[in-house]
Structure formats: C-alpha cells, structure tokens
Amino acid sequence: MNNKEFIADLANRTKLGSREVGSLVNATVSAIIGELAEENTIAIPGFGSFEVKKKLERVLVNPTTKQRMLIPPKMTVNFKPNTSLKSKVK
Q1: Which of 5, 17, 40, 43 lies in disulfide reach of 35, CB 3.0 to 4.6 Å?
Q2: pLDDT at residue 90 is higher than 80
C-alpha cells in the first residue's frame, strides 16, 4: 500500500475528504519526526513505540580486502510493536 492508497482508505473509513486526511497524515508524521529529532520516545497505544537509540562506534572488516574500518557512532530510530499488534499480524 502506497501513500495515496493509504490516504484513500483512511478517507473512506472516516468519511472525510482526501485532502483533509492527507494533511492529517502529514501533520502526524511531522509531529513524530519532530519528537524523534529531539530524541523523545513516542508511544502510540495499540500500535507501538518509537525511540531513538545511539549505535556505538564499531570496527568492521572488509571480507575481500581484510581492511579494517572504523564506523562512527550514529543515532537510529527503533520501533517496538505493541503486543496486540503483534498478535493481529501473526
């Protein structure tokens, strides 16, 4: 399902216009991105939680050249699904 199909499905379920639903989806995504940029955790009941984690610095070895490379630390976004969501997917 792409973004256009997702918005059309939500518009059909909520009986709102596609433009209204599109702006609501964009506002929701923008709010989530803003909170994650500030390294806050976001918990959505019945769905799951998003959190920012720091990956530590590590050393990788290229298997063909055997050259060692240092990978700098970075921030990543992790998603942990709610147990009810997990049970519905299985």
Answers
A1: 40
A2: no
